[in-house]
Write a structure and sequence with these properties.
The protein has 253 residues and is of the alpha/beta class. The chain is built from eight helices and seven strands, in the order H-H-E-H-H-E-H-E-E-H-H-E-E-E-H. Strands 1, 2, 3, 4, 5, 6 and 7 form a seven-stranded mixed beta sheet that branches. The radius of gyration is 30 Å and the shape is rod-shaped.
């Protein structure tokens, strides 16, 4: 009945008269063309299934430098071992810039702090670490054998950076307004601090344990912390490979 219906639709016989095992020339053409289309369909389905299994794909990621240094190598090692054919594009940047990149759709996943205006972003907290004052070991502030207050920073050259936006205290905002230098790159910022050029504020994780050319000083403000988490867009679904990377980050924490 299906063959009869198809012949009626096409307006030509598929089989020779009186034989259902011998194709007409037209039937042979239909068979060859249909077979190729079925093979193409099967290849397409296998490709879709492979994509769903994360056998291939691409994930664009941006991470704050401290996480990139401390945690990212282990996360990547596990992820690449499980999904060797997924292409990863990784950059490190400030939290503010990472939030912007996620919102614009230029990256799939960010690992950063959430900025103030982030209504279009999803955020899953991973860890918190304290913010403190960073200076050179020979700096006068390092000789104070106690947690620092914002008044202690008065009279010292302060270098602003992206994480300063996390500190809302009025006394600190006044100090920040007087700063004549803003350095977003953490490597450059710490190089300046190490030479004694100025002081800054940074999260504890931003200072590697083995560094001896800079000193991290705690503050008397115990609740002064930054929270780092997974930043994604609320307006776009993640591709399977990107969702798998998020799962890998969650598992690591």
């Amino acid at each position: 009945m299906t063959v009869t219906g198809l012949e009626a639709q096409l307006g030509r016989p598929l089989f020779e008269a009186g034989s259902k095992n011998r194709l007409t020339p037209f039937g042979a053409y239909v068979f060859e063309t249909s077979s190729e289309q079925l093979k193409q369909f099967e290849r397409g389905m296998k490709s879709i299934e492979a994509y769903a299994r994360n056998d291939f794909g691409r994930v664009d990621i941006a991470v704050v430098p401290s996480v990139a240094t401390v945690y990212l190598p282990g996360i990547l090692s596990n992820f690449v071992g499980r999904y060797p054919h997924v292409v990863l594009s990784i950059r490190d940047d400030s939290s503010a810039q990472i939030n912007k990149l996620v919102e614009l759709g230029q990256i799939d996943v960010g690992i950063a702090s959430l900025t103030e205006d982030a209504s279009n972003l999803g955020f899953q907290p991973l860890l918190s670490d304290p913010l403190g004052v960073v200076c050179s070991p020979s700096h006068a502030l390092n000789r104070l054998n106690r947690p620092l207050s914002w008044s202690d920073l008065q009279g010292h050259r302060f270098i602003a950076n992206g994480t300063c936006g996390l500190i809302r205290a009025a006394q600190f905002r006044s100090l920040l307004a007087e700063s004549e230098m803003d350095v977003q790159n953490t490597t450059s910022l710490l190089a300046l601090v190490a030479t004694g050029f100025g002081i800054t504020t940074l999260p504890r994780l931003a200072i590697a344990e083995e560094r001896e050319d800079v000193a991290f000083k705690t503050t008397r403000y115990a609740r002064l912390q930054r929270t780092i988490g997974i930043v994604t867009s609320k307006n776009r679904s993640l591709a399977p490979a990107a969702a798998a990377f998020v799962d890998a980050v969650e598992a690591a924490f």
